[in-house]
Known about the structure:
This protein has helices at 48-88, 99-116, 119-122, 126-176, 182-205. The chain is mainly alpha-helical. The N and C termini lie far apart (153 Å).
Amino acid sequence: MFGVPSFQIRSRSFLSLPNPTRAPAALPKLKPKPKPKKNLKLGPGLSDAELKKLQSEEADMFTADEEVFKKKEMRNTLEAYVLQTKSRLNDDWAPFTKADVKTSFTKLLEAAEEWLYSDEGYDADFKALEKQYSEVSKVGDPIEELFTESRARPEAIANTKKLIEQIKASAEDMLAANHVTQESADQAIKSGKTLAKWLSDFESKQ
């Protein structure tokens, strides 16, 4: 009476499964990176030549700034030396400066100070300032050396006196222990006495 409906099983090809026997699709070819061209525009439209020009101008500006800094430092050095030295000639340098040297040196310092505040000194370059500093410092340096030596002298004298005592004590100890002969010990003690006399004469002249 009623026919039984028939069902037809379809192929699984509708699932679109990949076929393992089929070759994969070829990959797209990559284009090589282009080589930079000469005078390539960099940044806001700058070529290599323009960039080098700007770098050169920047280096020139740096050099100019460095010269200004050196000039300022030398001016400050000269000014400080003149003012401090004029004061020291009447203070800690006074015992080490002869009257005629003090007079001539003071005039030299005053001339340097006047030049420094003149139009010529204001517009002077580094070399001119350095020359002025050399002129005054070559007179002041020997005075500073005498002053420095005088401050170190008390300690040097004290150390020399200790050395003399050590020479004598060492010679006597070594003689007592029969490590040296009487003649050698006497010679060492005599050297100590010679040094002590020299030191005494030196102190009397100070």
